[in-house]
């Protein structure tokens, strides 16, 4: 595979049937699926079915990631995200983060379980010396250890909370990202519970991001059917410039994709 990634492409070229068309307008955000679907956890709601055994989407070769960062810089990228799988399983994640931080504000989406004191120290050093800001998003699904670990596996809660505390102690204010997996009836208060929990840890400026559960990956087929498929008619009168795929590209093993959720799927491949 060529290491040149050819980022700016349309979501669907005209003439490909009834699939909606969203022209690529600019590159604002680059996502790097750095470990593919390789993860040390096997969460019950994972949107791309990541896990520790035989990942269906392989980790990304470091040189492809580096070339993507360089090309994105040439195209005026505004943000860079590292995701997986679990990004901290990648042997060169720190070096890749350092290169990304020379180009744009950079975010890592992690389950936090691999952020030991030494890793927290190195991340703090990267953030201190970087030209741009480094954000760490740590995933939790409940403030209660038992409820969280029913989704993420035994011991995941304790390790993630330790990571949050370590990052905070070193001046990196993590963003805690939670899904509504334990609140499928839309029970209000999830944000408030996380906010108050983080304050109880001594984090005076809690940062919380709540995500919906997507009927993809391990959740596919569990939400009462596939639902309505998006078509070109669905977007009639809609400003497609508002869609993430109009200004975002994802680099993963096998090519460039239109959307982080669909990385690795042939229908979303752009190169």
Note the topology:
Blueprint: E1 29-33, H1 62-74, E2 79-83, H2 93-100, E3 106-110, H3 117-129, E4 134-139, H4 145-152, H5 156-169, E5 175-179, H6 190-200, E6 208-211, E7 248-252, E8 255-257
Parallel strand pairs: 1-2, 1-7, 2-3, 3-4, 4-5, 5-6
Antiparallel strand pairs: 7-8
Feature tags:
single chain, 271 residues, alpha/beta, TIM Barrel
Structural notes for this entry:
The protein is of the alpha/beta class and 271 residues long. The protein has one domain: Alpha-Beta Barrel (TIM Barrel). It is 25% helix and 14% strand. The protein has an 8-stranded mixed beta sheet, with helices on one face. The radius of gyration is 19 Å and the shape is globular. The termini are close together. About 4% of the residues have low confidence.
Structural class: alpha/beta
In the CATH hierarchy, the architecture is Alpha-Beta Barrel
Strand order across the largest sheet:
6-5-4-3-2-1-7-8
The domain tally reads 1
CATH superfamily: Aldolase class I
Q: Give the uncertain stretches in residue-range form.
A: 8-17
Can you summarize the main beta sheet?
Answer: 8 strands, mixed
The N- and C-terminal alpha carbons lie at a distance of 10 Å
Topology order in helix (H) and strand (E) letters: EHEHEHEHHEHEEE
Shape descriptor: globular
Q: Which range best describes the helical content: under 10%, 10-25%, 25-40%, 40-55%, 55-70% or over 70%?
A: 10-25%
Instruction: Write down the overall mean pLDDT.
Output: 86
Roughly what fraction of the amino acids lie in strands?
5-15%
Radius of gyration: 19 Å
């Amino acid at each position: 595979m060529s290491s040149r990634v050819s980022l700016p492409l349309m979501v669907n070229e005209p003439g490909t049937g009834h699939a909606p068309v969203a022209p690529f307008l600019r590159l604002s955000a680059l996502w790097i699926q750095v470990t593919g679907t390789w993860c040390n956890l096997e969460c019950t709601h994972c949107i791309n079915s990541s896990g520790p055994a035989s990942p269906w989407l392989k980790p990304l070769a470091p040189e492809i990631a580096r070339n993507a960062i360089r090309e994105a810089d040439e195209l005026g990228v505004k943000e860079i995200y590292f995701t997986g799988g679990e990004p901290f399983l990648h042997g060169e994640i720190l070096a890749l983060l350092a290169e990304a931080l020379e180009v744009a504000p950079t975010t890592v989406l992690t389950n936090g379980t691999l952020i030991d004191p030494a890793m927290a120290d190195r991340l703090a050093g990267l953030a201190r010396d970087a030209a741009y800001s480094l954000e760490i998003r740590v995933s939790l699904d409940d403030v209660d250890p038992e409820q969280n670990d029913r989704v993420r596996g035994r011991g995941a809660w304790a390790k993630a909370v330790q990571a949050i505390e370590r990052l905070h102690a070193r001046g990196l204010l993590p963003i805690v990202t939670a899904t509504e997996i334990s609140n499928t009836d839309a029970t209000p208060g999830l944000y408030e519970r996380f906010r108050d929990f983080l304050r109880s840890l001594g984090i005076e400026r809690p940062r919380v991001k709540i995500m919906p559960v997507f009927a993809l990956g391990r959740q596919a087929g569990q939400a009462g059917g596939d639902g309505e498929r998006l078509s070109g008619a669905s977007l009639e009168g809609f400003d497609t410039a508002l869609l993430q795929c109009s200004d975002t590209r994802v680099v993963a093993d096998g090519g460039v994709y239109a959307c982080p959720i669909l990385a690795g799927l042939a229908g979303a491949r752009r190169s």
